[in-house]
Amino acid sequence: MTRRIVLLVTSPRLPAGLLSAEAWDACRAHPVLAAQESDQTTALRIAGAEVTILPVPSADALLATAGQTVIWLAGPTGDERLARELGMRLAREPSLAEMELMYGSWDPPGARLLDAVAVTERLSADPWRAAQTHRSLARFMLEEAREAVEAIETDDHEALREELGDVLLQVLIHARMAEELPGDERFTIDDVAGDYVAKMIRRNPHIFGGPEHATDDMDQILEVWERVKAQEKAERAGRRAER
After folding, report:
1. Element (H, E) at 173
2. Is 57 left (phi over 0), alpha (psi -120 to 50) or beta?
3. Where is the domain boundary, 103, 137, 169?
């Protein structure tokens, strides 16, 4: 029987153990190798998988492991170097083993936003960033928004992609700085996202409010939007007056 090496790639942005049925079946049926301990190896062991740490992974090391089928649990970056090395070795000596790539999980849409939040967190240690305030950065918010509008008006979609990233940077930086505000003034990027979601649901009952609110009448849709917006503004003013 031909030996089989399965390179199991998972998304580092999803909780450990959240794998496809195919991946779980493979991990329970065959030995799992990994370069280091992780939340994923812990989850696999808890589920009964046999996991062995191979501190210095290489094509030779994988080919030397016992068993007809082994699962290599790739690291967060996908272990492209190891996959390339193993692929080249098997291209020269195909009788040694078969190599299979298996995706155990995939990044959901918007997953890179988590990376953006993580990068912004790292940037908070930068001396220049630490010296800034919401007020000192306000001009950059205007500047980036203007440049995004300019890209829209000139139909420069490549520039628009870049400028939207710069606008996103401003949102993330201000939200991260807000975590350092005192008491009730403090908020996080999750608060910002949560407020956005709640606002969109309130203002779009024709989408989120069930069949009794369904309509394609643009005048009605806009009327509801403006009415709910006015209610939100009045409620916000009331809360401020109570302070």
Report:
1. helix 157-178
2. beta
3. 103
Is residue 239 a part of any domain in this protein? no
Model's pTM, two decimal places? 0.73
Last residue of some domain: 52, 72, 103? 103
Question: Nearest to residue 59, comparing CAs of 26, 92, 22?
Answer: 92
Half-sphere exposure of 134 (CA within 13 A, CB side): 12
Q: What is the pLDDT of residues 125-161, one digit of tens each?
A: 999 999 999 999 999 999 999 999 999 999 999 999 9
- Which helix (H) or strand (E) segment holds residue 144: the answer is helix 134-153
Do 8 and 96 belong to one domain? yes
Tens-place pLDDT, residues 16-40: 999 999 999 999 999 999 999 999 9
State which residues form the domain around 217: 198-231
Asked whether 11 and 105 are in contact (CB, 8 A), the reply is yes
